[in-house]
Give the backbone structure.
Amino acid sequence: MPFGLSNAPSTFMRVMNQALRPFIGKFVVVYFDDILIYSVNSELHIQQIREVLCILSKEKFVAAAKKCVFMTPKVLFLGYIISGEGLQVDESKIEAVRQWPQPKTITEVRSFHGLASFYRRFIPHFSSIIAPVTECMKGSKFQWTPEAEKGFQKIKEQLTTTSILVLPDFSQPFELHSDASKVGIGAVLSQAGKLMAYFSEKLTGSRVRYSTYDIEFYAVVQAVKHWRHYLFHREFILYTDNDSLRHLHSQDKISARHAAWSAYLQQFTFVLKHKAGVSNRVADALSRRVNLLSTMTIQVPGFDSFRDLFDSDTYFSEVMAAVRAGEKSEFLMVNGFLFWGNQLCVPDCSLRLKIIKELHGEGHVGRDRTL
């Protein structure tokens, strides 16, 4: 095929799809000259490799041996590492992110934004975190703000500590957890408690003025739309901490907006379950942990400094070591701070009393829930 023709890529893609059409969706994924063959066992895999190579030979395509990998439990494909465990980010890309310097121009911001957006499915509440960075791409004059720097560092940290996202098992029911805040909406798709993907969206325009009920409702609709290819024609469980959504169909009058959203959701078969905010830990984390850290940073002078005290703390030093070793799954790190579920862990320091007073001032919810 001649080089330089504007329609060459689409023509080549069409030829590859036509040649491998009998196998696509069964045991082959093809993207231009990248062909992925997946199988349930070794014997079947050898047979399917032979079938693909025969088709390529028949169509006069040549597979370069040095560019092929056979019989591997893990493979790098289109920027992702795919294995039996699930989906992971490419380690070489993560190293590039880890070493990424502070952007100095709009072009450099766009480059970082593009790479980060490619892996957004691994980052909870991605849209809200990267919003200040996105603002730096607007206008003709470049200005790197303190908020953009915080978002930039947070995205780098999140990308370098991502989890494995499991592949869908269509014999098991899907679970969708949604949550929202005044900044954005978030959702988690899972199966049997194992994460499959994150979704997030920043609230803009008129949506910023939505009521809490509308934002929660909007979060559900957008999450279902985002994963409709998984959820359509399958029963799934929808968890939300907005109990009023369960009574939508019993209302005598609803707004045009609610009617449209309700009509869309009626295409799907799901069981709506209310989950109190305190127990909806996974989805709430998308909006509440970050908000807590932001509030404490403003209200408590020197708050950022105590993240360095965990390793020397009598109790939390052992917890930190266990978290880094992949143990203590009930604990997690967020921007260098240690959390137990949604609760911030505070090492023994002079700031502990000040932080407790600030949290106590938010409402009298009792000792256990405060701490």
